[in-house]
Amino acid sequence: MTNKTALVCGAGGFIGGHLVNRLKREGYWVRGVDIKEHEFGNNSADDFVLGDLRDPQICAGLFDRPIDEVYQLAADMGGAGYIFTGEHDAVVMHNSGLINLNMVEECRKNNVDRVFYSSSACIYPEYNQLDPDNPKCSEGSAYPAAPDSEYGWEKLFSERLYLSFARNFGLNVRIARFHNIFGPQGTWTGGREKAPAAICRKVATAEQGSAIEIWGDGKQTRSFLFIDECLEGVRRLMLSDFEGPVNIGSEEMVTINQLVDIACEVGGKNLVKRHVYDRPQGVRGRNSDNALIAEKLGWAPSHSLREGLGKTYTWISEQIRIQEKELV
User: Fold this and answer.
1) Does the annotation mark 143 as catalytic?
2) Entry pTM
3) DSSP 128
């Protein structure tokens, strides 16, 4: 247990809500802040500020008491249907950029002991992710930079922003690059959901033997990390002397077709894949390289994708049942 204080930016989101719970279990006094309340009521923060972090005054007001640790997860983001269409590039860059510029300055001004910034695997160059069987996502491969989305470019800029404040002002930062974090209490419908949630929803709502839509040929590869392991990695990084950036992700790489097969197995359904090619697909291959996290933290995620997907599928199925009852 501890008597430390923590500020979680993005506490109304999926990872932020779970992180608040984790910090509370460890004995922290936690203040959460977000532009919205948690969609599923997952908010155990001691204090929750409903505020827009693009506003410098809102950011300044968060430090009316000493804050030991800041976890900056707030961002304008979503799944492939939001990030890769090109329709939201300006707001993604503008909103997330403002949030990070405001927060890093407040952390400096208020002498925060340690600051965590959640970057993304989307910063890795597209040219290293063309082969679905052999993607290269080691931390040192980020340059020469060529992310496949403006979301990735903003994340890379913000990494450099926090590291420059570390060099010039002595800010004690920790940076992790998240690889497809998933689990219960995450967005599962509406267009901003990521692949595991979207596929669980499609399988759960499909009639036995029917077809479900898969974006692309399904041979794109990815790895997916369950939320509990993500939080374990974050906390280990924060407690370490390693600044990062470091990957926090799974090395269990699967094709999207295989992800669908696992979801069908979990749901007990026999379904047909109907591939469509007019929707965003992202890079051809991406997988977390965990050599550095194993070296620096003596740890790497180990839970299976099937185990995490089972928990996620069960939760999404329950959300669907709740919606159906409300419509009756």
Assistant:
1) no
2) 0.94
3) G
